[in-house]
């Protein structure tokens, strides 16, 4: 797995890099060598934040954690992604490394370009990404893995751009063009 560690407006200490590489080595049993992990660290008032994103064959796993130290936040983020993988293991078995779940007991090329543009009334964040065709179930799984309340995707049956979202009653909805 290729690991990239970036500090936003700060330098990353070597001790944190070593700790991150050791922690992310846990995922080698799940992902092939072409998987990419990105660790972004940044500070907010009175807290330190770690954003962990793993991209493997178009499936994105994401966690953002805040804690008193970067090490603790990273540990929490790694645990959350591992929990996501275990929770969705039956759906993910086809996409992850073969044999990834053998040792476990009961325990789209997304290249984002983010620009911030200030207008008079709103601060708008623009994000562009490539969309790959997928089923509604696959889109819901992807939405849950990245921890968002909605997900934009191309429906593999109709070829239309759809949006799945989480409703207040914890069920799901899908928006389709009329």
Describe the structure.
There is one protein chain. Helix content is 25%, strand content 36%. Strand 2 (36-44) and strand 3 form a beta hairpin. The longest helix is centred in the middle third of the chain and has 18 residues, at 70-87. It is of the alpha+beta class. Helix 1 runs parallel beside helix 2 (70-87). The protein has helices at residues 14-24, 70-87, 89-92, 136-146; strands spanning 2-7, 36-44, 47-56, 59-67, 113-118, 123-128, 133-134, 150-155, 161-166, 172-175. The protein folds into 2 domains: 2-92, Ribosome hibernation promotion factor-like (Double Stranded RNA Binding Domain); 113-175, 2-Layer Sandwich (SHC Adaptor Protein). The strands form 3 sheets. It has a 4-stranded mixed β-sheet. Strands 7-8-9-10 form a 4-stranded mixed β-sheet, with helices on one face. A two-stranded antiparallel sheet has the order 5-6. It contains 4 helices and 10 strands; from the N terminus they run βαβββααβββαβββ. The termini are far apart. It is globular and about 55 Å long.
């Amino acid at each position: 797995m290729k690991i990239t560690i970036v500090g936003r407006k700060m330098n990353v200490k070597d001790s944190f890099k070593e700790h991150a590489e050791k922690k992310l080595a846990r995922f080698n049993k799940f992902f092939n060598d072409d998987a990419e992990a990105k660790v972004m660290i940044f500070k907010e008032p009175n807290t330190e934040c770690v954003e962990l994103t793993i991209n493997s064959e178009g499936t994105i796993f994401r966690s953002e954690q805040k804690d008193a130290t970067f090490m603790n936040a990273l540990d929490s983020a790694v645990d959350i992604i591992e929990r996501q993988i275990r929770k969705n293991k039956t759906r993910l078995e086809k996409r992850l490394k073969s044999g990834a779940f053998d040792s476990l007991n009961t325990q789209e090329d997304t290249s984002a370009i983010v620009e911030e543009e200030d207008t008079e009334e709103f601060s708008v964040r623009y994000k562009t990404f490539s969309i790959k065709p997928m089923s509604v179930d696959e889109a819901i799984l992807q939405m849950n893995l990245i921890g968002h309340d909605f997900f934009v995707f191309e429906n593999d049956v109709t070829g239309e751009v759809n949006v799945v979202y989480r409703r207040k009653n914890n069920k799901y909805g899908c928006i389709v063009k009329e």
